[in-house]
Each structure stands twice: as structure tokens, then as C-alpha cells.
Design a protein that fits this description.
about 75% helix; 4 helices; mainly alpha; single chain
Amino acid sequence: MKPLTPALRKEAVTSLEQYCAENFDEPVGNLAIEALFDFMAAEIGPLFYNQGVKDAQAHIQGTLTDLDQDIYQEPFTYWRRKR
């Protein structure tokens, strides 16, 4: 899994910081929030990543299954069309 860009990481940490501020009674410091984010990304992130890969594989497999129906060309139709 590729690491997030610094801008995306900052946005994610900011979102987590806002969530903590709105849902916890005690303030959570920025250092703690960044540590929590790093833990979640390392420990839980692969679950979401792997599910995304499985979903993409299923979608592609479905597309490939339908491909023969979508692009199949009936052979030997010249004489049938000529009539």
C-alpha cells in the first residue's frame, strides 16, 4: 500500500482531530491524534485496502464475464444478410 501524500495525511489528521473534539469530553492533543492516525492506518488500513482490492477484482471479473456477450460477433452471417 502506497503511503498517503503529505496533503492527504494532513487532511485526514485534521478530520480525526475534529471528530475527537466533537465526540470526546477531554481534549486530545495533536501529537496523540497523529499517533492514533498512524496506528489506525497501519493496523486497520489494510482491512479497507484489501476489501477495496477484492471489490475491484470482482468488478473486473464481472466485466470480463460480460465482455464476450458485449463484443461477440456472429460468424458466417453474410449469406443470411444477403437474402
